[in-house]
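The data layer described in this paper is built around a simple, fixed record for each protein. Such a record has a labelled line for the sequence and another for the backbone structure tokens. For reference, a complete record is included directly beneath this paragraph.
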Amino acid sequence: MHGSERKDGHDSTPEEDPRPKLWPRVLGSLAIVGLMVGMMIGRLTTPEPVQLQHVEVLPGALAVWFSDEPKLHGEMVDGTVGLLFDAQGKAQNGQFTLNGKEVNWRVRRTDGGLLLTVVAARALQGDWVGAPQDGRWRLQVNLREQ
């Protein structure tokens, strides 16, 4: 029976291979390629952000046009109507007349998206309804005095 002692400078353990180990490099390269392909697929499937196209003044209402349906949060606080849209667009403002009185509206950019505020000398109340129209999204904000 043979033991584990060395005889003539030979033993049963093979010497280490002096060639470089390529397997970790292959796995690393595959991981990087997989990450890059995944990022490209994710970029292609991410929807474009919703864009505010324009605000249209109607009698007693505002029509806000978007490229697609935005997420919306609306509140009436102290006689003002405020709507926060998860959308992108440029800041704008304007005026219109409601029952012979001036009403001011303003769209501004915030951290949460676009904020539409409607303010008048008298307290306002409003309701809003949105619907797709002509391949775009139209949100109508109907206003009345409190």
